[in-house]
Amino acid sequence: MTGAGRGRTWRLAREYVPAALLLAGLVGCWELAVALFDTKPYILPAPSRIWDAFLEIRGTLPAHTRVTMTEAVLGLALAAVFGILLASVIASVPLVRRVLYPLLVVSQTIPMIALAPLLIVWFGFGMMPKVLVVEMVGFFPIVVSTVDGLTGADPDMIALVRSMGANRWQVLRQVRIPAAIPAFFAGLKIAAAYAVTAAVVGEWVGTSSSHGLGLLINRSRASFRTDELFVAIAVISLSSVLLFAAVHLLFRIAAPWAHVMTREDSK
Fold it and tell me: Could you say which of 49, 61, 105, 128 would form a disulfide bridge with 45 (CB–CB 3.0 to 4.6 Å)?
């Protein structure tokens, strides 16, 4: 292994090993506490019992996860598209910003668990309501972050481009949008972290599909299989982390200069 490879391995180990050790310690304490206090499995199963439940239902988990991840990815894509469009309008037209921005903030005070049943009533029990739940959860952080990025572009660069005869669209395309890419991906990563959970909420309210992590949670709850509930929670967490990592990787591909600048600033 070259020196650069060893250095990269050491950085990854230094970044992730402490968290892994802490997680392992917490799981060990959990196992010990359940044994010492003789906790009933339907109240709090031991990690070893949860592992047994995972082995028992592992054959059905890929189908459940595939349905939920499809809803999460589609909803996240819709949130990104509409978020970028609205953010561009808000950043370019002050009147639109004054009218819509407060309404966006107010919209976040409405609990999604209350809106999800309405979406089921309006759009049925198919995939559409779940995708819309994810889109509504991810829309706000994407819009806010992107607006901040578009309006936070370097004013000297904007003045320079305008002095060369650029119109509003050219300023947006050549200066504001490149400057807003890191902010957009910051909002997209926040949305990605909540996308899987939002899809599960939509499935938990109602679904016509025979698969989905929300459906698995409903079935496990009805049968008092708390160990299966923890398996579903673990799969949801892992899926969220993977989706977050995928967005982060996409950010590295779309804006490699941002990571170079971050490394230089950290030196």
Answer: 49
